[in-house]
Amino acid sequence: MGFDFAGEIQDLGKEVKRFKKGDQIFAFAGKNFGAYAEYNCLPEDGQYFPKDCIMSLKPSNMTYEEAAAVPSRGILALHFLKKGNIRNGQKVLIIGASGGTGTYAIQIAKYFGAEVTGVCSTTNIDMVKALGADNVIDYTKEEYPKRGEQYDFIFDATPFKKGNRKSLELRCKKALTRNGQFISVDNGTPKSGTEDLNFLKEIIEDRKMKSVIDKVFLMEQLPDAHRYIENGHKKGNVVVKIN
Ligand SMILES: NC(=O)c1ccc[n+]([C@@H]2O[C@H](COP(=O)([O-])OP(=O)(O)OC[C@H]3O[C@@H](n4cnc5c(N)ncnc54)[C@H](OP(=O)(O)O)[C@@H]3O)[C@@H](O)[C@H]2O)c1
Question: Mind listing the domains of the chain with CATH numbers?
Answer without folding.
Answer: 4-72+192-241 (3.90.180.10), 74-184 (3.40.50.720)
